[in-house]
Amino acid sequence: MRPALFLPLILLATPAAAEPALVAAAPANGASVAKVTRLSLTFSEPIAPASTVELVMTGMPGMKDHPPMPIRGFAAAVDRDGRSLTAPLPRALPAGSYDLRWRAVGADGKPNTGTIRFTAK
């Protein structure tokens, strides 16, 4: 038998490296919520402590052309379940629109990224 015939069998036997996919978020994408005091993301796969979130205020009521403003003063951490990234905020977010940018690092070291857009009332 020729070696080229074995190649498809070898490829089928190799496990695929799965990137952690976002399965739940609080606040949810597109949500309009009051008193946001915590950010929470849950992934399909375990994530590494190197996973991060960045919160940016993109709009403020009554202020036209609001420049993006990073929100600082909080830290995100991987929960005990290994699949959730949580960030308690020191106080409720002011009214406005926000982008929650996340970066989840899988067990294989490969990151997956995304953005959740929500509005705080």
From TrEMBL:
One protein family per Pfam: CopC
Signal peptide per UniProt: 1-18
Domain of life: Bacteria
Alphabetical UniProt keywords: Copper, Signal
Cross-referenced SUPFAM superfamilies: E set domains
Keyword Heme: no
Cross-referenced Gene3D superfamilies: 2.60.40.1220
Transmembrane segments: none
InterPro entries registered for this protein in UniProt: CopC_dom, Cu-Rt/internalin_Ig-like, Ig_E-set
Residue ranges annotated for the CopC domain, each copy included: 21-119
Name of this protein: Copper resistance protein CopC
UniProt organism field: Sphingomonas corticis
Lineage: Bacteria, Pseudomonadati, Pseudomonadota, Alphaproteobacteria, Sphingomonadales
